Amino acid sequence: MTAHAPLAAGRRHTVRCLPNGQVVAVGADSAGECRVSQWRDVVAVAAGNVHAAGNTGRSHTLGLRSNGTVLACGWNAQGQCNVQDWHGVVTVAAGWRFSAGLRGDGTLVTTGRDAEGQRQVDHWRELTGISCGDWHTVAVRADGSVCAAGNNTAGQCEVQDWHQVRAVSAGYLHTLGLLGNGTVRAAGRPELWAGIERWTDITAVAAGSHHSLGLRADGTVVATGISEAGQCEVSQWRDIVAIAAGAAHTVGLCADGGIVATGSNRHGQLEVDAWSAS
């Protein structure tokens, strides 16, 4: 199954799961997406991300607890936070107005928006990893193949010929797939992933709204795409163990527990210096 995600970057906020099971968040809180201070026993987090637009400010946050249940806070206009009955979940993912949970039996549970067909996943089986973009859902099967559902305007769901994939990440109009040999495949709008065919030794990928990230085995990070807010300025990062990509910002977890961040800070989503490593 997909490794637990200790970091998440949304449209205007950033979330971290601490080693002690508590959760911290910074950035915009207009819908309550940062109200996580009472959460406990959390092992992974997800933040609803969406491209910047006049109607996309609010977001939601998910927390996977060690017992397989899920917590949620923030915007719930289409039921994206209605996860109180979920059980047996091992991975969570959040898109714009919708949420998905991967169960231990390899199936998905979803809630929220389905206007683009992003929740038409009930027939998927033997899944090991998931990711949610703005309007699409992507999953890895146990055999290394990939399935996708939802908006395909830019070809971001054209993943049916992918094989030997071990992880996926869905953005606004693109999808990334990490292969077992440390290289990366992509689908969707080409300018959002230009040059990734040259990436090697990658251990994790993250797709933002308009940019793509790769974590190398040596702890460095590579980035490509549109960087109008500086979200791709990661060349000096070292000793990184986890990455997350938001609408226009990027965050990384250091081996010593520290956090690095770059990109848009319009809503305080980069104000992570005070987060404890403990």
Word description of this protein:
This protein has 278 residues and is mainly β. The chain has one domain: 7 Propeller (Methylamine Dehydrogenase, Chain H), CATH 2.130.10. It is 0% helix and 41% strand. It is built from no helices and 21 strands. The strands form seven sheets. It has a three-stranded antiparallel sheet, with no helix packed on it. Strands 4-5-6 form a three-stranded antiparallel sheet, with no helix packed on it. A three-stranded antiparallel sheet has the order 7-8-9, with no helix packed on it. The radius of gyration is 16 Å and the shape is globular. It starts with 6 loop residues before the first strand and ends in a 15-residue tail after the last strand. The model has no long low-confidence stretch (mean pLDDT 96).
Write the layout of secondary structure elements.
Elements: E1 7-9, E2 13-17, E3 23-27, E4 42-47, E5 60-65, E6 70-74, E7 89-94, E8 98-103, E9 108-112, E10 127-132, E11 136-141, E12 146-150, E13 165-170, E14 174-179, E15 184-188, E16 202-207, E17 211-216, E18 221-225, E19 240-245, E20 249-254, E21 259-263
Antiparallel strand pairs: 1-2, 2-3, 4-5, 5-6, 7-8, 8-9, 10-11, 11-12, 13-14, 14-15, 16-17, 17-18, 19-20, 20-21
